[in-house]
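Sequence only, no structure available. Ideas?
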Amino acid sequence: MSAPAAHGRVLPTLNEDGSRNWLRPKPAAGRWWRRRRTVAYALMVLFLALPHLTVNGMPAVLLDLPRREFTILGTIFLPTDTLLLMLLLASCLIAIIVFSALFGRVWCGWACPQTVYMEWVFRPLERWIEGGRSGSLGIDRRHAYVHPRRLVKYAVYAAISLVLAHTFLAYFVGVAAIEQWVRLSPYEHPVPFVVMAVTTGLVFHDFTFFREQTCVIACPYGRMQSALLDRQSLVVAYDRARGEPRAHAESARTHRPANAGDCIACNACVTTCPTGIDIRNGLQMECIHCTQCMDACDQIMARVGKPPGLIRYSSQAILAGEPRHLLRLRVVLYPLAFAIAFGGFLYALSTRSHADVTLLRGTAAPFTVEPDGRVANQVRVKIANRSRRERSYAITVVGAEGGQVIAPESPLTVKAGEQRTTSVFVLLPRTAFINGRRDVQVSISDGDDFAGTFAFNLLGPAGDGGGR
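Reply:
I predicted one. Tokens follow.
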């Protein structure tokens, strides 16, 4: 039994019978299209080049998940930088909210990688290989999924997906690791090979088959815009007061009604939309503010002798004849929240220590009793060098008088941006412990920019010492 047909189209990417509606938008090369093209090419160059760039001898961006270490613009963030990372992520989130409140979905239409690569790489190649929009539609109508032109397109898409996947993973493992993976046989690194293959497959599937459904179905941003936008926010909008009632293009040539609006019902705005919506139906979740409908409509208006801007950047309030209010509550509160979050991030970053020190106990027993009766404690000292040059850290223990301190690696040399762990052994007589504890201070200094003293509790046998 077949599913009952829906009453009208549920999604622009679905037909009424539930089958896929393949969108083959016709590009409208207007002034907004040219501006978006410039931005898109700049972003693609930045995406491809960023993993190869270095800042102060370190990668510009490296999100090293196995080592739990993020490097951003030459600054290293470690797992202990919880506050810094929280403030940075909060700043990014609030920045998107601020731009949404002021300029609508400018991220989706101008900067989102899904839009940039779909509209400026994959769809242009599709039109070139398959013979334009009409050629793609012809292949769709014949259901010729193994058409020679389409197979060529899949091969080209696979090659581009491979490049994008390698570049994407370079942000997480580094360019050097990617180069090594490429040179070695898959048998020598099976896990990275599988990761690369899966990533390439996901990129290929996204831009070949899933396409605009990422924006329409998967991405939550469209569903959030009702909370992020207000009637004063800048959106891509159709001027209904000017365009209605519509006079169809055919009837307009012979007899144009006296009360007809400027819209000639040519559907150029629908034909060019990459998500398949009709902007004349008002603000919709699927609209990504790509401005293609604006360029298409302006071209039609020029042909029929009407002024441009029937579809334009505007706000719901302005189109309804309401006054424009630049200063409103969310425009004040959102930037203020961003200033607080990002200001806090910059302050915490500027006052952060040049080294991160962690003191840990031994991996086996908390203490051991030597044959001569002394109690031995192992103190593991982990030092992360946040500075931009190699440092040597001297390690001393204060409060272990009457005992012996053995520090095999003092000073401990740590390269810039790296971390090392060494062990310090403290041997004290039983009488040095009170109720099984002895408080000491571990001092660490590089003799230049960093000096710190950290409290540590040595453990010993309970019931010994002055506290009996």
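The chain has 16 helices and 16 strands.
Hope that gets you unstuck.
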